[in-house]
Design a protein that fits this description.
The complex is a heterodimer of chains A (235) and B (306).
Chain A (H helix, E strand, L loop, with lengths): L1 E10 L9 E9 L3 E5 L6 H8 L7 E6 L2 E2 L8 H6 L1 E5 L10 H11 L4 H14 L15 H13 L5 E5 L7 H16 L3 E6 L2 H7 L2 E6 L2 E6 L6 H6 L1
Parallel strand pairs in A: 3-8, 3-9, 6-7, 7-8
Antiparallel strand pairs in A: 1-2, 1-4, 4-5, 9-10
Chain B lengths: L1 H17 L1 H37 L2 E5 L6 H13 L3 E7 L1 H11 L5 H4 L9 E6 L5 H9 L11 H4 E2 L5 H39 L2 H10 L3 H36 L5 H4 L6 H32 L5
Antiparallel strand pairs in B: 1-3, 1-4, 2-3
Helix pairs in contact in B: 1-10, 2-8, 2-10, 2-12, 8-12, 10-12
The chains are: A alpha/beta (235), B alpha+beta (306).
Amino acid sequence: MNVIEVRKVTKIYEEGEKPALDAVDFYVSKGEFVFLVGPSGSGKSTFIRLLLREILPTKGEVYVAGQNIARLRPWKIPRLRRSIGCVFQDFKLLPNKTAFENVAFALEVINRPAHIIRTQVPEVLNLVGLGEKFNSYPDELSGGEQQRVSIARSFVNRPPLLLADEPTGNLDPATSQEIMSLLNRINRTGTTVVVATHDREIVNAWRKRVVALEGGKIVRDQTRGVYGYEEQELI
Amino acid sequence: MRKKMVYFIKEAFTSFKRNLVMSIAAVSTVFLTLFLVGSFTFLAFIGSKLIDAQEKKVEIEVFLSESAPSEKIQGLQNRIVTWSEVSRVRYVSKNDALKRLKSMFKDAPEILEELPGNPLSPSLQVRLKDTRKVESVALKIKKQPHVKEIINDPDKDVKYGQKYVPKLFAVTRIFRWAGIGTISLLGFASLVLIVNTIRLAIFSRRREVAIMRLVGASNWFIRWPFMLEGIFQGLIGAFLTVVILFIIKTSLFKYQIIQFFTWLGVSMDYQPLLSQFYILLLALILGGIVIGATGSAIALRRFLKV
């Protein structure tokens, strides 16, 4: 079963402009780990935003977990988002909430009872290696730690799909590798993971499926791939 | 749902505490504007009482001819009393009228000594429930059947201060409308000011709202804590206003400043004024709550669009 089905999708933000995505066909089946690579402006973020139904396609159809996102009634959109964990370059943590509260928020939203929140949040925070910093606010945490909180939040309600948009964009190489192993571990629990990135080192280190976007078109789709053509020639 | 409410209330409180500067700004805006509206409305209440007192003084005097048979006078009096506009009709005899005149001039009795006997006419004093109807009631009296047998010249002898009464009512009408106009304007300005402050507070947190939506929070899940926070801010602001207004009212009575009007010759009943005052306080609190809640809801609207 495909968790993501993107059929001939074109996205044009403003009439007359060059399309951000141009007739893209793309499928991700359950349990896959996919790197979405390409330079800035290649359409990676548009892609992620389509899957989250922040925007609608101009042409074509987008299915997430079997649901056509264009047909989704407005009140059902929150439900779609609850089934997608997301991690961003800028972490997107609530500044007035502690690490614990930020993670707990994702469970409050889906009406989990307090006793479940009390047990699950520490469990997930321990999993991402933040056992000591439950009560720190985001501005008291390093970038890597904030990204861990963000991953904990995206994962705490065990969504079938996890989207990460440049998750290592603001982090140093060592921390980036740690974040990636975290995402890999989450993938091994059966969660489908899609990582949009232009971090060459990471893509080359992990050898997962690589989908390369350029100018809004998919130019390469490779299992156990590498970042660019240069590396391919070296292999 | 009830359990969620507890969570929302807790959220609203924490958010109030953690965004203290914005909270204080919102509370003081609510306080200052409601205080302005509240104190002006209270002043308007007092003013309206003064106007009422002036208007209540308007009476119709029906001067009767001396030859009028007393049963006819009684008949007219009984008829007038039954009219819905009339609150009381009193018969003042020739002697009563003289006594009244004497008491009016008791400091200068020599003025009255010149009077040849008693030149005054007996009269009926007609007091009205609504003095603005004075003209129509006077006309009605003049048109009573056989009125000529009781009143010599109905056009002259039915008196209600024809010259100054219309002017008085013109002036009081202006005062009333000016009061209503000023209060509505002030109220509107307060509304705009408060809603804008809350909007600013929420605008500074639009990123938070966006994050909540990304995590999959429904619109109401986001809205509730913000609205409760707004209610909370409105409530505190209104409460401060009520406390200050209450202190002002108490000292007005304690130092007998209100009684100043009695000294001015305006008799006033303070009891209705007081109950109006308490209704005003209640309205201010309710207003604070409603403005806080709707202000937040309005401010959130543009960030909650799908």
